[in-house]
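FORM 7B: Structural annotation worksheet

SECTION A. Query
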Amino acid sequence: MVALLLLSCLVVGCATSTNKWVALRSTPRNPLTESLGLLTKQGPKPTERTIQLLRRYNLHESLEGDRRELLAKLDEIESRNPNRENVYAQAELAYVSGKRSERGKHPKQALEYYGAAVLHSYRYLFDEQYATASNPYDPEFRRACDLYNAALEGALRIVQAKDSLRPGTTQHIRTANHDCQIEVRLESNDWHAEDIDHFEFVTDYEVHGLRNHYHNFGLGVPLIAVRRKHEGEDPREEYYPADLSFPVTAFLRVDLAAASRNADQTAVLELFDPLNQPTVLVANQNVPLETDLSTPLAHTLSQPALDDNRLSTLGLLKPDKVKQVQGLYMLEPFQDDKIPVLMVHGLWSSPVTWMEMFNDLRSDPQIRKHYQFWFYLYPTGQPFWYSAAQMREDLASMRQKVDPEGRYPALDQTILVGHSMGGLVSKLQTVDSGNDFWATLSEHPFSELEADEELREGLAQTFFFDPNPSIRRVITIGTPHRGSEFANDTTKWLGRKLIRIPTKLMQGKHQLIARNPGFFRKDAPLDINTSIDSLEPNSPLLPVLLTAHCSSWVKYNNIMGEIPAKGIASWFTSGKGDGVVTLDSARLENAESQIVVPADHSLVHRHPQSILEVRRILLQQVAELRSYTYGDRIEQVSNPSGVPREAVREPLQTMPALLPDEQMEVARGATAVLSR
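SECTION B. Predicted structure
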């Protein structure tokens, strides 16, 4: 235990620890709770404004009688004297009556009232028969929106309780005056009805694990759609984690013409993906949807498959265990017209470490419009160059699955964001190895190596590689480009004691040495078995990576952390830095931009300044894109290993992704961030 605590000093900067992302509320969140007294003994009851309207028509005593009769009288008054105040009162009274019926365990009756409340609030907001426009400055206008949302949610809860809230089904609701057939329709190009296992309600949950909660106000009911695996899945769907949740907003579109005739009608419950459609067209108005992007994300993160502590610790101490789940992950649908941003975690960590940044970046409409976010999970106990080789292979495999014919140019604008050791893994995707990396192992040509074919190929993939032609930018955050002083004799010894080296790796090493006596250098990195060893300042591959030939089409950005030198970190490091990586080690000479933020190693990638800087870079990248074609010229690269490699296509131009007005819009967003 003491050894593990000491080792944690080394990797404290990378590990995240949040087990509780969401918690169930004792009662669902409802903006009408206070104004309508929903939780009081005397409630639910209408507002004083509605009671005043009833007094004006001498109907206030009817509140204690049959609510159906009261609503029918108001409907008769409304038919003779149409005005928004009357129809609002109908909506409010119907909703309060629905709440009372639900409290009295009469769900069928409650459903009727909720249906009436949705209809009347919809009329208040959109019916063109009213001579005067609605007053957006009147609190009643927002309450009408809240009534629509709350009544629709109340109705959906009753339907959901019968397991009937499913796309492709039709529901029947009887209101006081109408029969209504409601078709449930999923309005999404990315998700399909068979993808959805069930829905949960955002208002049932409170988010704990995310610093910021992104909830946009409008119309509709924000839902959590829990995905299920099913037969006939597209190959790209293998990149979704188990029990993935995604945001949906339910909006009921009412036939106002039928409603005005008091006729039976057919309505459509539209289930929108707010990531791609944040607004809906109603009565020639572009209406914002009520959306919540953070709660479904937190719901996903609360699932056992994404237990950060388990993944991080297994990845460090038992790398073989994580190999079973290693690879690329998506938390939203693959979209061929959006630029991938691939986030790569660091030592003793997992993709969960990126959720703060992901949550903030995804809240930006321009970033949502142009980017999709991917995450890479890998075992962090092994030397970083092995992880880089595996990531190289995983990226190639994914491209072959999702775009075998190379038809999606947005994928050729990929951006990597790496924290800590993940920055080294990312940078290794963009350099030409030449013979330099192999030279750290041996002075002899690779062709003279004696080894089994599988082992030989594995070595070739690790030490001989081309830059990935699809990657355009790498953002490194808190990355030890020159190693970390935390990787000293003590921590390396602890690492060797605690980290279980993959058996296959150790067997391969022994075979190579036995079959090739005198072939390898005395200080060859074959003796480096753990990630901690690979990160020491004297690690032979670090200076090679620093001076390696970088792709001409790749740009680099760098973010470093700095805190006062104190506490345990000051025992192991000298000089200014984030407590794990010094500024001297974190600097990157060829970076297009380089900033220092006041954060330690564990928080540098989650610090608001870092997130703003990544946002600025992403917006600037989109603003710079003008034209793009695949290059016909083949870059000539050396291949000392003799193992066949795919030719590298060097891009000659950049991509026309934006119309002029979009270019200006994105450029303004980038400039706004820069000016802060």
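SECTION C. Observations
The two ends are 46 Å apart (CA to CA). The first strand starts at residue 22 and ends at 24.

SECTION D. Sign-off
Analyst initials: ____
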